[in-house]
Amino acid sequence: MHQHFVYMMANWNNSVLYIGVTNNLQRRDWEHKLKLIAGFTEKYNATKLVYFEETDNVHAAIAREKQLKKWRREKKNVLVNQMNPKWIDLSENKRSLDYARDDIMHYHSDRSANKIQASSLLLGHTLDDSK
Fold first, then answer.
1. Which long-range contacts (CB under 8 A, 24 or more apart) does 13-19 make?
2. Of 123, 119, 121, 126, which is closest to residue 34 (Cα–Cα)?
3. Of the candidates 12, 77, 113, 131, which lies 20 to 30 Å from 102 by C-alpha distance?
4. What is the SS3 assignment for 51-69?
């Protein structure tokens, strides 16, 4: 069975929340962090994974995403606080740059390699690291 995730990304001071759905949370998290996808999270710098739910049903994940997007901000805050009261970046403890970088390169092979290279260099890595 496939995994599907509903997740929330926040900016540095938690004043902005983005809700999304994906089948690969680690890859999607890095797409937001490296700003590979133009849109809301890139514009508002929402790069901190603060909440997620997992299901094996894509339809349930999409329905939950739509449900959460309709909620008032206060209700979303309560949900995040239940899982992550300090609003830390949940991806910090399970980050695997090499895996994420390889996965991103696969999914974004048609995008500008310069943007990915520049992002990797900012993080202190090069795309040809063999570690």
1. 14/48, 14/50, 14/87, 16/44, 16/45, 16/46, 17/46, 17/50, 17/73, 17/76, 17/80, 18/44, 18/46, 19/65, 19/68, 19/69, 19/76
2. 119
3. 12
4. EEEEECCHHHHHHHHHHHH
Question: What pTM did the predictor assign?
Answer: 0.73
In 3D space, the residue among 64, 44, 52 whose CA is nearest the CA of residue 24 turns out to be: 52
C-alpha dist (Å) from residue 70 to 3, 20, 27, 50: 23, 13, 26, 18
How many Å apart are CA 43 and CA 11, to the nearest integer?
10
pLDDT in tens, the chain (131 residues): 789 999 999 999 999 999 999 999 999 999 999 999 899 999 999 999 999 999 999 999 999 999 999 999 999 999 999 999 999 999 986 544 444 445 445 555 544 444 444 444 444 444 444 43
